[in-house]
Amino acid sequence: MRFSQFMLIAGSLCACALTPAQAETTGQQKILASKSEFRVCADPDNLPFTNRRGEGFENKIADLMARSANQPLSYYWWPQRRGFLNNSLNAWECDVVIGVPTHYEAARTTQPYYCSRYVMIHRAGQGITPSLLDEPRVRSLRIGVVEHTPPLDMLLRRKLDPIVYFSNYDGVSSSPGQIVADVAAEKIDVALVWGPVGGYFARRQAVPLQIEAFEDIADPRARLAFPISFGVRRDDKARSARLAGLMRERAAEIQAILRSNGVPLVDDPVQCAPLHQQAAREPAPLAQLVTDAVPSSDVGPAHVQRVAEQTSPPQDSESNNIDCKGTETMQDIQKLAGGSPAPGTPYTVQDGKVDAKTYTGWLRYSAFCQNCHGTGGVGSAIAPDLTQALKNLNKRQFETVVSCGLKGNLGTGVMPPWGDNPNIHPYIENLWAYLSARADGALGPGRPQQLSTPR
Q1: DSSP string over 68-97
Q2: What predicted TM-score, i.e. pTM, was given to this entire model?
Q3: 340 vs 131, 334, 337, CA distance in Å?
Q4: Which long-range contacts (CB under 8 A, 24 or more apart) does 172-181 make?
């Protein structure tokens, strides 16, 4: 898993030039420096974790660990995007990442030095409770959530329409604290955010904000707490052991730094078990995890039925019967017939507003596809412009690409398969509706407004 799934780190490519001094460093110099300095890989502008001015809580922990090791502290700055570890830690430009998910597969990690969780932030006096997501009134609230995070999955399972905040990508600066600031400014009612981010920025608002845990009553096994460790190169056993020793010696001081920076700490061995341990202890049947929960009161049955009809794919959808054999390349896809086309367009757009089916397609696209294919499907350095690609694909071909993925001419992966992903596969028709509206020029690239439905 990428960092972004836990700690709001964006999942797109970053083009950052090395300074001349960095570019001229030889391999031998890097090895010598790794033995004499406490070299930290860090993002230069990623509060509350790190920045160049040393204001983040990971900066303070790095300083503590360097002093404990009797080594000078140095940083190698690289924004935490896709490729962060390859361009920093694995390139021997630095040796330690201060915060990675425990047992993160791309690094060797120590035992966790803290565990935190996603939290709910809101203004006082709103009557917000930990079970809010399972209360009927949740549909009347403006809920902010960050892309690629567990709370977004929870909201989508309930067919809610959250306000999605996006992490930094393609060099675009976006403060992770904006979602908290918007709660204080009453632009949204509730923010569901990673605890260290929420706790840090909530303290810096002009109005008092409440921070509390929230639960998923419909699925109590939903994962919201994660342990965090120090990370080193996978073969760097000796450094990992030294860090573990320093961590034990300085545990009280590390905890003090975390608390002083508003990090919500969780002390629960079950909630904070590393992912592989929790999976072994509590296997979760997929069917239970993707159940759509709908409030049973305060929402009329006719309204619930309309929403279900507009946002759920038909039971006989052709995308449920995709055969992925023999569809590995685009040449294979182009041989597929279009199936049985429905009359008219798959979307409704009126004065920039869209029907619920198309809106859900935008929501799914923004949450799961935008990092690669760009805002509104306009493409990026790593994925094509879908507004043009759809002009040469019929519906059946589109469904097959999304379900089965694609390989490039050299046999390498280009498009990953989403056919088994419960957040995408049931909504392929919604994606088709949204992207068709974009390809036809009927809809702009931004967040659309949803057409109101009669009650």
Answers
A1: HTT--EEEEE--SSBTHHHHTTTTTS-SEE
A2: 0.62
A3: 44, 16, 9
A4: 173/45, 176/8, 176/46, 176/47, 176/48, 176/146, 176/201, 177/47, 177/48, 177/201, 177/204, 179/144, 179/145, 179/146, 180/121, 180/205, 180/209, 181/205
- Predicted pLDDT of residue 34: 78
Distance separating alpha carbons of residues 113 and 104, to the nearest angstrom: 14
Give the domain extent around 381: 301-450
If asked whether residues 311 and 440 sit together in one domain, one would say yes
Compute the distance between CA of residue 156 and CA of residue 225 in angstroms, rounded to an integer: 19
Residue 144 tokens, joined = 């902010």
Structure tokens at 350: 């009126």
Distance CA(250)–CA(281), nearest Å, equals 31
Return mean pLDDT, the chain.
78
- pLDDT, tens digit, 9 for 90 and up, residues 416-450: 888 877 778 888 999 999 999 999 999 988 788 88
Distance CA 125, CA 311 (A): 33
What is the full DSSP assignment across 94-107? -SEEEEEETT-TTS
> 109 and 159 share a domain?
no
Q: Encoding tokens for residue 402?
A: 């999304």
Give residue 40's pLDDT: 97
Q: Is residue 149 located within the same domain as residue 43?
A: no
What is the C-alpha separation between 133 and 160, in angstroms, rounded? 9
Phi/psi of residue 330, nearest 5 degrees: -65, -30
Map residue 368 onto helix, strand or coil.
helix
Quick check: 219 pLDDT over 80?
no
Residues 400 and 354 both lie in one domain: yes
Select the more confidently predicted residue: 394 or 33.
Answer: 394
Q: Are residues 37 and 122 in the same domain?
A: no
Nearest Cα residue to 422 out of 445, 442, 403, 444: 403
Residues 6+ apart with CB under 8 A from 64: 250, 253, 254, 257
From the centroid of its chain, how far is CA 123? 25
On the question of pLDDT at 4 being above 60, the answer is no
Mark whether 433 and 312 lie in a shared domain.
yes
Query: Domain with 388 in it: what CATH number?
Result: 1.10.760.10
Helices (H), 394-445: 395-404, 428-439
What pLDDT is recorded for position 228?
Answer: 95
Name residues whose C-beta falls within 8 Å of residue 56's C-beta, 6 or more positions apart in sequence: 46, 47, 48, 49, 50
Contact 390, 347 (CB under 8 A): no
**Same domain membership, residue 332 and residue 266:** no
- The structure tokens 């809610």 sit at 160
